[in-house]
Specification:
It holds the Pfam family ECH_1. Keywords: Fatty acid metabolism, Lipid metabolism, Lyase. This is Probable enoyl-CoA hydratase, mitochondrial. Its EC number is 4.2.1.17. It is an enzyme of class 4 (lyase). Helix content is 42%, strand content 14%. The chain is α/β, with parallel strands linked by helices and 297 residues long. The strands form 2 sheets. Strands 1-2-3-5-7-10 form a 6-stranded mixed beta sheet, sandwiched between helices. A 4-stranded mixed beta sheet has the order 4-6-8-9. The longest helix is centred in the N-terminal third of the chain and has 16 residues.
Length: 297
């Protein structure tokens, strides 16, 4: 593990800043970001994929290594809700730039907060817009995913990482603890011992170690990460949107309940699929040896 002090020294001495634009290779020219909503100042959005059914959100505060200020999260929440409500979108990707997915929360914004002010304002409530999304959300993580950045990645359903990605919960170094899932989701993904080590030391883990722990699904070369993430989203998009949503709900329930209750929940969702036209079409197509045509009902 790399210490936060070492990384901080590197960032300060090299003044690492990225432009925020991800270069597109010759065969992936569709991977260009543009903002279709003028009010967005801290994110960029696009619709990508061969069928234009993948919502793409880029965190865009390059000079601050995509630090998660409140304004950014309000915009992120709106973009996620808009994509979730769009029937043409099958899955959503959240990414940053090659230097940082998100290097943490905006510390300057939080510096003078008090217990009273955070409680009254419901600080971090906007983060629920991501976790409440019905459609699959995939995090494409290059560079630093630290503190709130790591927590944001864990809010997503799947994490793909570039080989140079770094994950961590360094809040202990500034006299606080993770407040958006770092002490709750992380143990569920990597186990208590590893989570304790990460949270109590503030040390970073690299992408390959994160993959071994189960925090990350797959690791790719930096320049291939977004392309592979879009491929995954497109693959998900070939299935019934309704059944995908039901499957996501069922998997998520595993982290919310006991095994017995979870199995009962799964069975009820499974039974529920038999009330859908998409289940009937899927099984009929399988028997008839043809590709299914799903209608999302």
């Amino acid at each position: 593990m790399t210490s936060i002090a070492a990384i901080t020294r590197t960032l300060l001495t090299k003044n690492v800043i990225n432009t925020g634009r991800i270069a597109a290779s010759s065969n992936t020219s569709f991977m260009k970001f543009y903002s279709t909503a003028p009010e967005y100042e801290n994110i960029k959005i696009d619709v990508v994929g061969a069928k234009k059914n993948v919502g793409l959100i880029q965190l865009y505060r390059p000079k601050a290594l995509n630090a998660l200020c409140n304004a950014l999260f309000q915009e992120l929440g709106k973009a996620v809700k808009d994509f979730d409500a769009d029937d043409k979108i099958a899955a959503i990707i959240i990414t940053g730039n090659e230097k940082a997915f998100a290097a943490g929360a905006d510390i300057k914004e939080m510096q003078n907060s008090t217990y009273s002010s955070t409680t009254k304002a419901g600080f971090l409530k906007e983060w629920e817009d991501v976790s409440n999304c019905g459609k699959p959300i995939i995090a494409a993580v290059n560079g630093f995913a630290l503190g709130g950045g790591c927590e944001l990645a864990m809010l997503c359903d799947i994490i793909y990482a570039g080989e140079k990605a770094k994950f961590g919960q360094p809040e202990i170094n500034i006299g606080t603890i993770p407040g958006a899932g770092g002490t709750q989701r992380l143990p569920r993904y990597v186990g208590k011992s590893k989570a304790m080590e990460i949270v109590l030391t503030g040390n970073f883990i690299d992408a390959h170690e994160a993959e071994k722990m189960g925090l990350v699904s797959r690791v790719f070369p930096v320049e291939k990460l977004l392309e592979e993430t879009i491929k995954l989203a497109e693959r998900i998009g070939t299935h019934s949107p309704l059944i995908v949503k039901m499957a996501k709900q069922s998997v998520n329930q595993a982290y919310e309940t006991t095994l017995k209750s979870g199995l009962q929940y799964e069975k009820s969702i499974f039974y529920g699929t038999f009330a859908t036209e998409d289940r009937k079409e899927g099984m009929t197509a399988f028997v008839e040896k043809r590709a299914p045509t799903f209608k999302n009902n």
